[in-house]
């Protein structure tokens, strides 16, 4: 009996005694929050934050350990908090989760004690305790769980607790008995600093004791406006609004206090407030709401979630239990923590951006109103179209995914350029990264049956984005059928990414009966061929005269060169719509496998990538810390050697993920790195969003069950699971042998059971036939 038949016989025997529908896992965790560690990724290059946030919440209330960096030095502190830092500067209300760029860190609060004259209004030097309002702390006295964070501030002698709702953040500060309590409100603090970043800011004390204000900045996103409203559980005894620049505007009245600082309102470019509360007999609670629209919007958001610390925390805890409870995982403790934390990180963005009344600020910097849905922003689409958004279609209700699509379309409708978001936050566009990757997000959702948005309007927005001549060299595409490097930087990457995006337009257009559009974009999806060099076997940058740019080094990585955050080794595999055709161009399946092996096994000892911030997690020329490599391990499936995919995935997961602060190999990029792990741990991955297929890898947990948005459950079981058995011997779907290396979306959504027989040896016969491989447009089944 062959090895494959032995595994299949074992699976068939198990199916006679094991129910196909598993009602509960053997070790079901009653509280999914217990397996989540928000500190994962806060060290190294993960760029995650440990603070409090609700699922997709507008407010990300988190500690900032240092905001004194300048421009590119801010990279290591892109999320405000870095685990290695010994001091804490304060707690601000907006953060990115795992971004490769820094910004936000709005409206920083920090408790202080002592007499009024002793309170310092500058953060001070981290190396000189007592030089400012920052405080030392210890990780021993720090705690984080979804929706909650706490820390003991050693110098301030204050226990700080944070929680957050959909549009509010709530602080709770416990001061020592007898200490005079103060808060510092620093409107100067930011996570992306350079001279003149703050264009204007304001702060005022309203008659009812509410403090409101605003900040207008030119950072990563130009001319960004954000407003806040703040209320306290105890009344102010005094306050000072101070400008640390000379060119200021004063408004309001002069009251008693420290001279001209005692104002009801102040505006300027460098404002800091001192808020005094006297001696307190109970913890001080501070509720802060934000709005990108105006102060009244912030006040309305504040009123909508005004229940206090415990009420907000309980509501958010319930929301996280529901969101994380869709996935049950039974596996090794470290892997379970990695996977559940990855799911948590995948549910932080896209974040809510509209106020409770539906108003939101768009890319035109004007105020609009979302009617009947919640507008969302924080779209890192070059990263998240790959796995983050496909994951959301499996773990979030259809209404949430529909709102995401409606938000993309609404943004396009009011964009001055008339195109879909590229990299957007709080409604403002940054134009960071390449491609028009809102397109595959929309197409994938539509093809999966998600509705609730205007498909005709969506298709028009997709076409407009793909044909907007001023963007990314698109003016040359209809003429040359590629992007020329002497006209546009990173041309090789743009050519292949545009080709994939165009393929997804064709898929959606055909499903809508628009064959004219489908034919047009099907042709464009083949333009990747015009940048592939058969002599070297690499995707390369071409000049407008048709010649490839010389000299050529496939290992060279330089920003603004032929490729985007990568080189020829990574980008030569990006033809997800037709990997079979790419392999044919490379010389066939075995040639592709040989080249894949060369990529993973490449000797980097003589290469220096220290100048490239995003190049992390190297395995040869495979770079797991950045997105262009994320699908590559699965490509052995497309070449008919899925056992090699299983081997490479084991290599990647074992070396790139740990349940520790430095446990992410690179930036989490708004959930993409995490979504990769969730899919991979379950045993499959969306190599080609829009194809309605998932390439099978191998599971990294014993059992998992996914509660789907349609009410059904899809269960994954790995028999004989263990580190010594990293290969798939055989696979069964709902009790029947599965002889192909892909699943369909319909099969998952139907519920049921996917069962793997794990083995110490590869199965060289499973899923090798061309028709047993994942989707390629040129292969007819």
TrEMBL record:
Keywords, sorted A to Z: Signal
Residues annotated as signal peptide: 1-26
UniProt KW Transport keyword: no
Repeat among keywords: no
Family matches, as Pfam families: Glyco_hydro_92 (PF07971), Glyco_hydro_92N (PF17678)
Residue span, Glycosyl hydrolase family domain: 298-759
NCBIfam families noted in UniProt: aman2_put (TIGR01180)
Protein name: Alpha-1,2-mannosidase, putative
Organism: Sphingomonas palmae
């Amino acid at each position: 009996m062959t090895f494959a038949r032995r595994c299949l016989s074992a699976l068939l025997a198990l199916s006679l005694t094991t129910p196909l529908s598993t009602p509960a896992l053997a070790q079901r965790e009653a509280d999914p929050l217990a397996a989540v560690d928000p500190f994962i990724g806060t060290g190294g290059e993960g760029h995650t934050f440990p603070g409090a946030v609700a699922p997709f919440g507008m407010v990300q209330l988190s500690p900032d350990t240092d905001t004194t960096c300048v421009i590119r030095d801010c990279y290591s502190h892109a999320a405000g908090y870095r685990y290695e830092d010994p001091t804490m500067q304060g707690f601000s209300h907006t953060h990115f989760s795992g971004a490769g760029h820094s910004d936000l860190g709005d409206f920083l609060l920090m408790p202080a004690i002592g007499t009024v004259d002793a309170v310092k209004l500058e953060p001070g030097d981290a190396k000189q305790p007592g030089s400012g309002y920052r405080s030392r702390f210890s990780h021993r006295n720090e705690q984080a769980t979804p929706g909650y964070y706490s820390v003991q501030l050693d110098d301030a002698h204050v226990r700080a607790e944070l929680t957050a709702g959909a549009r509010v953040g709530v602080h709770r500060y416990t001061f020592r008995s007898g200490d005079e309590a103060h808060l510092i409100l620093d409107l100067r603090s930011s996570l992306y600093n350079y001279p003149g970043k703050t264009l204007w800011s304001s702060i005022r004390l309203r008659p009812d004791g509410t403090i409101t204000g605003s900040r207008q900045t030119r950072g990563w996103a130009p001319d960004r406006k954000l407003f806040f409203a703040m209320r306290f559980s105890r009344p102010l005894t005094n306050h000072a609004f101070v400008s640390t620049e000379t060119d200021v505007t004063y408004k309001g009245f002069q009251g008693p206090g420290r001279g001209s600082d005692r104002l009801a309102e102040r505006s300027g470019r460098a404002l800091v407030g001192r808020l005094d509360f006297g001696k307190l007999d109970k913890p001080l609670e501070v509720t802060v709401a934000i709005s990108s629209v105006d102060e009244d919007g912030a006040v309305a958001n504040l009123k909508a979630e005004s229940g206090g610390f415990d009420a907000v925390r309980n509501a958010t805890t319930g929301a996280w239990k529901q969101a994380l409870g869709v996935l049950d995982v039974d596996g090794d403790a470290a892997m379970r923590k990695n996977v559940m934390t990855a799911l948590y990180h995948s549910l932080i963005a896209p974040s809510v951006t509209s106020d409770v009344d539906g108003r939101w600020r768009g890319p035109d910097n004007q105020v609009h109103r979302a009617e009947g849905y919640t507008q969302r922003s924080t779209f890192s689409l070059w990263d998240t179209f790959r796995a983050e958004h496909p994951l959301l279609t499996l773990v979030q209700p259809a209404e949430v995914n529909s709102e995401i699509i409606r938000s993309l379309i609404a943004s396009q409708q009011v964009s001055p350029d008339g195109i879909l978001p590229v990299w957007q936050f709080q409604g403002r566009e940054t134009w960071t990264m390449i491609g028009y990757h809102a397109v595959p997000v929309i197409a994938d959702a539509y093809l999966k049956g998600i509705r609730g948005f205007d498909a005709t309007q969506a298709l028009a927005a997709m076409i407009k984005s793909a044909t907007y001549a001023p963007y990314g060299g698109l003016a040359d595409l209809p003429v040359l059928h590629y992007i020329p490097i002497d006209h546009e930087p990173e041309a090789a990457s743009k050519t292949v990414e545009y080709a994939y995006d165009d393929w997804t337009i064709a898929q959606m257009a055909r499903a809508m009966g628009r064959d004219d559009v489908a034919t047009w974009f099907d042709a464009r999806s083949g333009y990747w061929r015009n940048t592939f060099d058969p002599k070297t076997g690499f995707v390369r940058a071409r000049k407008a005269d048709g010649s490839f740019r010389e000299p050529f080094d496939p290992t060279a990585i330089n920003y603004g060169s032929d490729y985007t955050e990568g080189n020829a080794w990574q980008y030569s595999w990006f033809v997800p719509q037709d990997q079979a055709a790419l392999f044919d161009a490379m010389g066939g399946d075995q040639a592709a496998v040989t080249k894949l092996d060369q990529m993973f096994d490449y000797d980097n000892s003589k290469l220096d990538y220290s100048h490239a911030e995003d190049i992390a997690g190297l395995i040869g020329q495979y770079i797991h810390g950045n997105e262009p490599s994320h699908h590559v391990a699965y490509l052995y499936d497309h070449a008919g050697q899925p056992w090699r995919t299983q081997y490479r995935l084991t290599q990647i997961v074992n070396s790139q993920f740990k349940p520790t602060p430095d446990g992410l190999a690179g930036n989490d990029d708004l959930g993409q790195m995490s979504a990769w792990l969730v899919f991979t741990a379950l045993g499959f991955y969306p190599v080609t969003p829009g194809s309605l297929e998932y390439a099978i890898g191998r599971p990294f947990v014993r059992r998992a069950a996914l509660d789907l948005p349609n009410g059904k459950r899809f269960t994954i079981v790995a028999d004989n699971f263990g580190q010594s058995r990293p290969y798939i011997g055989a696979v069964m779907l709902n009790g029947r042998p599965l002889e192909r290396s892909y699943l369909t979306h319909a099969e998952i959504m139907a519920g049921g059971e996917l069962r793997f027989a794990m083995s110490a040896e590869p199965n060289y016969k499973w899923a090798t036939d061309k028709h047993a491989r994942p989707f390629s447009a040129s292969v007819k089944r």
